[in-house]
C-alpha cells in the first residue's frame, strides 16, 4: 500500500547538481526519517517523491507502478508542510474537506471522516474557525487532519515541528508517532533535528550534499556509524572525535567515544584534563573538559551525583567496547 | 514604544496634529462650503464660514449649463474602462511572473516599470498625430487606450507584489490535495488574491480619474472627462466661485471616498514595493 | 514545480502585456526621434525635409529654453524640499499617540486625491486671487495690501500649489517607514543614553533614508512633467516666467504646431527623465529578489 522505490534519481537546478544518482527503498508501513544538515537535499528529495519537482533523471515507483511523470495529485500521497500551508480563507472544516472535495467524495462520507479526524486530533471545537484564529499546535493538527482524511498511500512531512516551541514539539512528536502506530501507513519525515530522527524513525536516512551517508535503524546508526560524518551527526551530546597519538594507539586514524561511554574519576584514569564548565541537568551532568591533549574540548556525561567544579582535574577512561575506530578515509574500521 | 505617555503630552500631540491636519484639509473644506453659497456670499469680505444661506442651486446650474453629467460619465468610463481592461491583461502576466518566475522575469518587470517613467510630453507629438489621423482625438475609446497603456505597468507591478505574498506552499498543498491547475486557481488562488486585485483596481481608478496631461491634450469637448472639463473654468473671470466649487466638489468627492478606503494600499502601489 | 508545460503557458500569458507595452514604447519613441530631425510644421503643408540637428539647435538656443530649464529645476527642487522636510515632520507628528489619529491621517492625505486641475483652480481663484481670494481678504483684514501671487511670484505660487498636492504622498510614505521601525532599536538607544534628538538623528533618520530616497525619485519623475497646474493657473506666464520644459514643448508642438521643434524638445525631456529613472530603477531592483 505504500512501498516507495527510488532508482538512480538525480536532480539538478540549472548547472547545480543537488541530488547525485540516489537509490532508496522504503517499505510499506515504515516510518522513514531523512535527516541531515540544512542544504543537504533532504527537502528536495521529499519534493521529488511528492511530485512537486520533476526528477532530472531516474525513476520513482510507488507500489510497483512508475510514478516518475505522474502529477502530485495522482500519487496518492499527502503532505504536511513546514508552514502548514493551510488555506487561510477556509474554515478548519473546509480545509480538511478540501482533498476529499477534489476527489469527489460523497458529502456524508466527507462528514464522517472530518468528524473522526477532528475527534482524533482534538479539533472538534475548532471546526468552524479559520486558521488565523488558531495556535501553532492547532494549525499543525489541522494540517495533519487534512492529510489523514484522504487515507493516502504515504504521508510526507517536511520539517513539520520546526515552527513550534520546544514543549509543543515534544508533544506533537509523540502524537505523530502514535498516529503512525495507529494507521500503520508509510511515513516519510524530513528534519534537521537528530533527536526527532532517533525518537520517531523505524529507519533513518542520513544525507549530506545529496548523498546518502547511511541508512539504518536508529540504534544501528548510534552503535555503528558508518563514517565520521554520521558519528558526529547522530547522538546528543556529540561523540568526541580524537585524532593523533591516542587514535594511533588503537590502530586507527581517528577514534570516537560518546560522552556517555566515558567513566570519570578524581583519582586516576586513562586520560586527564581540566573541567571548564559543568552543566547540571539534574539526572545527568555534562562536563566540558579541556587540556586533555586529545581534542580541544571533550564532553563527558556522568550521573547527576558526580560533582566537579570549574578548574578541577578530572580523569577519564573510555569503555573499550564502545570505542569507534575510523580510517584515514573517514570510514569505520571493523 | 510601549510606555505610558502622560495625558498632557497626548493632548498636546492631539491639538497640534488636528490643527495642522485641518489646515492642510482647509482648501477642500472651503471648496465644499463655497459650493453651497450664493455667488455673492462666495466672495464676501469678511468671508462667511457656516452662517450663510445653504443652497444647492450651484449644482443644478452647473449641470444645466454645461452638461456636467456627460463629463462625469466620461471620467467614469475612462477610469473604470482602462482599469478593467488593464486588469484583464495584467492578471495573467502577473500570475505567470509571480508563480513561474524565469531567468528574465526580473528584467521584464523592470523594463515594464521603465515605460512608466517615459515623460508624456516626450511622446505627445506622435501620439497626437496618430490619434488625429485615425480619428481617435476626442473619443472615449482613444482615452481608454492611452490610460490603459500608461497605467498597465503599475497594475502589473501591484498585482505581482500581491501575488508573490501568496505562499507557494499553499498552492503546492492544493496540488498535493489533488487539485488540478484550474481548481487551484478557482478555489485557492483567486479567493486569496481578491483583496490585492481590489486594491489595485481602486488605486488605478484614482490615478486614471486624476490624470490631467493626456485627458487635456487629447480631448476637446465630447470625450472630455472632468479634469479637462474643469480646466475650461480657468478662462472666464468673474463671479463664478460657487459654481466652480460645485463642479470641483462633484469631481473630487468620489475619489476622496475611494482614496480613503484604499489609503493603506496606496504606499505599496505608488512606490512599486520599495517601501512597505 | 516548474514543468515544461507550465513554462510555455506562462510565456503565453505574459505576452499580451509585453507586446502592448513594447508597441507603446517603441512606436512613439521612434516617431519622436524621427520627427525631431525633420522640418515639420502643421501650418506649413508640403513635404517635410530632413534637416539634421537643426531643430535641436533651435530648441537649445530658444530664449525660453534656459528659462524653462531653470524653472523646471526650481519647481522640482522647491517642491522636493517643502514636501520632504514637511513630510518628515508631519510623519513624526502623526506617529505619536493622540486622539483621532485615523481622522487626522485622512485629513492630511486628502489633497493627494484632488485632481490637478481642481486644486490649481481652487488655489488660483479662491485663495490667491488679489481681489476676491481668501489671502487678499486676510491681508486686508490685517491692514496689508492685497498681494497678486500669480502675477508677481508665479513660479513660487505654483510651487506652493504643487507642494500642497504632494505633501500627503511624502507624509504617507515616511509615516509607513516610521511605523516599520523596530521599537526595540529605539529602546536600546534610550538605554544607551541617547536623547530624543539623538534618537531621531542616529536611529530614525538613517532608517528613513531609503524611504526618503524613494520619495525624492518618484516625485522627481512626476514633477518633471508638471503640466495641468501651469496651464490652468498662469499658462506659463507672465511671459515665460512660469514655463517649465513640459509646458514649453507643449506650447511649441500644440500651440505653434511645430512638430519638429516639439519633438526635439521631447527627446531632451526623455533623456532628462531617464537619468532620474535609472537611479530609481536601481533602488527598486535591489528590493526585488527573485
From TrEMBL, chain A:
Tagged with keyword ATP-binding: yes
Domain ABC transporter: 4-234
Superkingdom as given in the UniProt entry: Bacteria
InterPro entries linked: AAA+_ATPase, ABC_transporter-like_ATP-bd, ABC_transporter-like_CS, ABC_transpr_MalK-like, ABC_transpr_MalK/UgpC-like, Mo/tungstate-bd_C_term_dom, NA-bd_OB-fold, P-loop_NTPase
Keyword terms of this UniProt record: ATP-binding, Nucleotide-binding, Transport
GO molecular function (one): ATP binding
PROSITE patterns: ABC_TRANSPORTER_1, ABC_TRANSPORTER_2
UniProt entry tagged with the keyword Transport: yes
Transmembrane segments: none
Family: Belongs to the ABC transporter superfamily.
Protein name: ABC transporter ATP-binding protein
Organism of this sequence: Paralimibaculum aggregatum
UniProtKB/TrEMBL annotation, chain B:
Pfam family, one: BPD_transp_1
Domain ABC transmembrane type-1, residue spans: 72-262
Family named by the database record: Belongs to the binding-protein-dependent transport system permease family.
Record organism: Paralimibaculum aggregatum
Domain of life of the native organism: Bacteria
Cell compartment(s), UniProt: Cell membrane
Record field: transmembrane: 12-33, 76-96, 108-131, 143-164, 185-209, 240-261
Alphabetical list of PROSITE patterns matching this protein: ABC_TM1 (PS50928)
Cited InterPro entries: BP-dep_ABC_trans_perm, MetI-like, MetI-like_sf
Keywords recorded for this protein, A-Z: Cell membrane, Membrane, Transmembrane, Transmembrane helix, Transport
Name of the protein in its database record: Carbohydrate ABC transporter permease
Chief localization: membrane
Keyword Transmembrane: yes
Membrane topology according to the record: Multi-pass membrane protein
TrEMBL record, chain C:
TM stretches of this protein: 12-35, 68-94, 106-123, 155-178, 208-228, 259-281
Family: Belongs to the binding-protein-dependent transport system permease family.
Entries under Gene3D superfamilies matching the protein: MetI-like
Stretches assigned to the ABC transmembrane type-1 domain: 69-280
Full protein name: Sugar ABC transporter permease
Keyword Transport: yes
Membrane topology of the entry: Multi-pass membrane protein
Lineage, highest ranks first: Bacteria, Pseudomonadati, Pseudomonadota, Alphaproteobacteria, Rhodobacterales
Subcellular localization(s) per the UniProt record: Cell membrane
Organism of this sequence: Paralimibaculum aggregatum
Principal cellular location given in the protein's record: membrane
InterPro entries, per the entry: MetI-like, MetI-like_sf
Amino acid at each position: 500500500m505504500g512501498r516507495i522505490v527510488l532508482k538512480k534519481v538525480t536532480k539538478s537546478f540549472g548547472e547545480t547538481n543537488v541530488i547525485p544518482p540516489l537509490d532508496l527503498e522504503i517499505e510499506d508501513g515504515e516510518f522513514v526519517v531523512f535527516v541531515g544538515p540544512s542544504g543537504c537535499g533532504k527537502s528536495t528529495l521529499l519534493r521529488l517523491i511528492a511530485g512537486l519537482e520533476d526528477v532530472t533523471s531516474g525513476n520513482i515507483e510507488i507500489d510497483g507502478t512508475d510514478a516518475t511523470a505522474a502529477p502530485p495529485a495522482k500519487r496518492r500521497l499527502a503532505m504536511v508542510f513546514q508552514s502548514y500551508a493551510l488555506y487561510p480563507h477556509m474554515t478548519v472544516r473546509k480545509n480538511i474537506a478540501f482533498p476529499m472535495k477534489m476527489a469527489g467524495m460523497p458529502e456524508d462520507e466527507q462528514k464522517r471522516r472530518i468528524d473522526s479526524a477532528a475527534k482524533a486530533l482534538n479539533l472538534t471545537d475548532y471546526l468552524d474557525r479559520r486558521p488565523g484564529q488558531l495556535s501553532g499546535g492547532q494549525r499543525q493538527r489541522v494540517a495533519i487532519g487534512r492529510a489523514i482524511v484522504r487515507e493516502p498511500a504515504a504521508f510526507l512531512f517536511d520539517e513539520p515541528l520546526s515552527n513550534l516551541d520546544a514543549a509543543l514539539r515534544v508533544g506533537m512528536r509523540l502524537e505523530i508517532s502514535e498516529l503512525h502506530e495507529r494507521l500503520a501507513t508509510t511515513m516519510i519525515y524530513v528534519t534537521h533535528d537528530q533527536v526527532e530522527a532517533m525518537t520517531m524513525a523505524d529507519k533513518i536516512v542520513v544525507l549530506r550534499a545529496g548523498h546518502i551517508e547511511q541508512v539504518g535503524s536508529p540504534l544501528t546508526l548510534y552503535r555503528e556509524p558508518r563514517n565520521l560524518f554520521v558519528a558526529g551527526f547522530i547522538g546528543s551530546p556529540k561523540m568526541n572525535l580524537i585524532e593523533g597519538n591516542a587514535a594511533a594507539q588503537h590502530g586507527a586514524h581517528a577514534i570516537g567515544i560518546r560522552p556517555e561511554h566515558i567513566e570519570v574519576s578524581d583519582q586516576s584514569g586513562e586520560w586527564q584534563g581540566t573541567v571548564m564548565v559543568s552543566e547540571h541537568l539534574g539526572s545527568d551532568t555534562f562536563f566540558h573538559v579541556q587540556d586533555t591533549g586529545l581534542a580541544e574540548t571533550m564532553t563527558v556525561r556522568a550521573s547527576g551525583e558526580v560533582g566537579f567544579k570549574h578548574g578541577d582535574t578530572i580523569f577519564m577512561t573510555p569503555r573499550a567496547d564502545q570505542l569507534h575506530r575510523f580510517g584515514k578515509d573517514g570510514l569505520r574500521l571493523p | 514604544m510601549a510606555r505610558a505617555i502622560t495625558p498632557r503630552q497626548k493632548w498636546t500631540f492631539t491639538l497640534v496634529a488636528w490643527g495642522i491636519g485641518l489646515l492642510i484639509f482647509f482648501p477642500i473644506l472651503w471648496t465644499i462650503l463655497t459650493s453651497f453659497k450664493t455667488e455673492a456670499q462666495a466672495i464676501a469680505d469678511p468671508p462667511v464660514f457656516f452662517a450663510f444661506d445653504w443652497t444647492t442651486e450651484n449644482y443644478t446650474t452647473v449641470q444645466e449649463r454645461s452638461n456636467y453629467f456627460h463629463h462625469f460619465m466620461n471620467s467614469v468610463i475612462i477610469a473604470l474602462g482602462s482599469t478593467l481592461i488593464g486588469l484583464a491583461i495584467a492578471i495573467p502576466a502577473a500570475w505567470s511572473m509571480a508563480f513561474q518566475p524565469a531567468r528574465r522575469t526580473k528584467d521584464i518587470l523592470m523594463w515594464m516599470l521603465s515605460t512608466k517613467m517615459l515623460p508624456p510630453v516626450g511622446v505627445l507629438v506622435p501620439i497626437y498625430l496618430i490619434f488625429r489621423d485615425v480619428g481617435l482625438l476626442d473619443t472615449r475609446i482613444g482615452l481608454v487606450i492611452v490610460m490603459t497603456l500608461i497605467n498597465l505597468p503599475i497594475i502589473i507591478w501591484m498585482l505581482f507584489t500581491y501575488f508573490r505574498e501568496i505562499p507557494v506552499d499553499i498552492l503546492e498543498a492544493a496540488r498535493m490535495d489533488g487539485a488540478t491547475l484550474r481548481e487551484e486557481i478557482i478555489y485557492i488562488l483567486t479567493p486569496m488574491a481578491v483583496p490585492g486585485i481590489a486594491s489595485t483596481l481602486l488605486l488605478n481608478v484614482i490615478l486614471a480619474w486624476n490624470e490631467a496631461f493626456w485627458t487635456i491634450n487629447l480631448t476637446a469637448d465630447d470625450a472630455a472627462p472632468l479634469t479637462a472639463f474643469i480646466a475650461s473654468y480657468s478662462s472666464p473671470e468673474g463671479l463664478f466661485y460657487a459654481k466652480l466649487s460645485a463642479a470641483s466638489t462633484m469631481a473630487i468627492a468620489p475619489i476622496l471616498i475611494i482614496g480613503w478606503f484604499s489609503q493603506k494600499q496606496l504606499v505599496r502601489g505608488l512606490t512599486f514595493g520599495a517601501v512597505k | 514545480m516548474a514543468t515544461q508545460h507550465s513554462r510555455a503557458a506562462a510565456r503565453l500569458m505574459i505576452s499580451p502585456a509585453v507586446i502592448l507595452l513594447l508597441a507603446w514604447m517603441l512606436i512613439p519613441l521612434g516617431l519622436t526621434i524621427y520627427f525631431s530631425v525633420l522640418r515639420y510644421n502643421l501650418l506649413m503643408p508640403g513635404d517635410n525635409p530632413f534637416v539634421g540637428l537643426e531643430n535641436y539647435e533651435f530648441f537649445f538656443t530658444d530664449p525660453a529654453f534656459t528659462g524653462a530649464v531653470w524653472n523646471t529645476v526650481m519647481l522640482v527642487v522647491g517642491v522636493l524640499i517643502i514636501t520632504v522636510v514637511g513630510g518628515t515632520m508631519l510623519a513624526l507628528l502623526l506617529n505619536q499617540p493622540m486622539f483621532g489619529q485615523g481622522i487626522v491621517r485622512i485629513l492630511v492625505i486628502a489633497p493627494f486625491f484632488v485632481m490637478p486641475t481642481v486644486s490649481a483652480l481652487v488655489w488660483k481663484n479662491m485663495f490667491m486671487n488679489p481681489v476676491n481670494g481668501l489671502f487678499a481678504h486676510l491681508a486686508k483684514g490685517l491692514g496689508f495690501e492685497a498681494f497678486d501671487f500669480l502675477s508677481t511670484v508665479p513660479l513660487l505660487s505654483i510651487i506652493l500649489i504643487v507642494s500642497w498636492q504632494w505633501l500627503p504622498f511624502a507624509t504617507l510614505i515616511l509615516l509607513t517607514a516610521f511605523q516599520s521601525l523596530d521599537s526595540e532599536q529605539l529602546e536600546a538607544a534610550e538605554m544607551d543614553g541617547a536623547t530624543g534628538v539623538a534618537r531621531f538623528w542616529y536611529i530614525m533618520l538613517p532608517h528613513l533614508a531609503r524611504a526618503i530616497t524613494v520619495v525624492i525619485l518618484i516625485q522627481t519623475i512626476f514633477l518633471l512633467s508638471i503640466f495641468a497646474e501651469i496651464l490652468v493657473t498662469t499658462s506659463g506666464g507672465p511671459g515665460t516666467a512660469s514655463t517649465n520644459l513640459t509646458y514649453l514643448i507643449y506650447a511649441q508642438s500644440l500651440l505653434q504646431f511645430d512638430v519638429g521643434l516639439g519633438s526635439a524638445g521631447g527627446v531632451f525631456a526623455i533623456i532628462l527623465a531617464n537619468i532620474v529613472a535609472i537611479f530609481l530603477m536601481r533602488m527598486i531592483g535591489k528590493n526585488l529578489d527573485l
